[in-house]
Design a protein that fits this description.
Layout lengths: L10 H6 E6 L3 E6 L6 E6 L12 H22 L3 E5 L10 E6 L21 H15 L5
Antiparallel strand pairs: 1-2, 2-3, 3-5, 4-5
Helix pairs in contact: 2-3
């Protein structure tokens, strides 16, 4: 992989999320939308725009981390479906969405993207969900 020294999180991603913590490659974020258990993985590499900008080892590592996140979401929330995607049309910095979906959710069967307004977590809801996710992913609070 390339150096991590120049990595910085895009301000829009920072504004829209809570930090869950760090996996070996990616920073794991929780989208601040209580309608969906929605994680965002951001590889700590400078200058990434597309999945194909990851080197081969990092691409494999990201796939494994995305799978680990989906498994954690499955164990915690038993969703009906996962939506996993990298869009990047608004925020160019490469990031991968892993969204747990339910037939009963506010957007089913439509995608979650471009569906404002988000329903922000309360402080208590966010604290609970972050603690659950950190325990399940075995990562420490930042």
């Amino acid at each position: 992989g390339t150096a991590v020294s120049a990595f910085s999180l895009h301000p829009q991603l920072a504004a829209d999320t809570h930090v869950v913590g760090e996996l070996a490659l990616a920073r794991v974020l929780l989208m601040n939308d209580a309608r969906f258990p929605w994680l965002v993985l951001v590889p700590r590499r400078a200058g990434l725009v597309e999945f194909l900008d990851l080197d081969a080892d990092d691409a494999v590592a990201l796939a494994a981390e995305a799978r680990a996140c989906a498994l954690a979401l499955r164990r915690l929330y038993q969703p009906d479906k996962f939506n996993v995607a990298a869009l990047g049309n608004v925020v160019a910095q490469f990031h991968l969405h892993v969204v747990a979906r339910f037939r009963s959710d506010a957007r089913w069967p439509q995608p979650v993207w471009g569906a404002p307004p988000a329903l922000p977590y309360t402080h208590t809801q966010a604290a609970t969900r972050l603690a659950e996710l950190r325990a399940e992913l075995r990562i420490e609070a930042p």
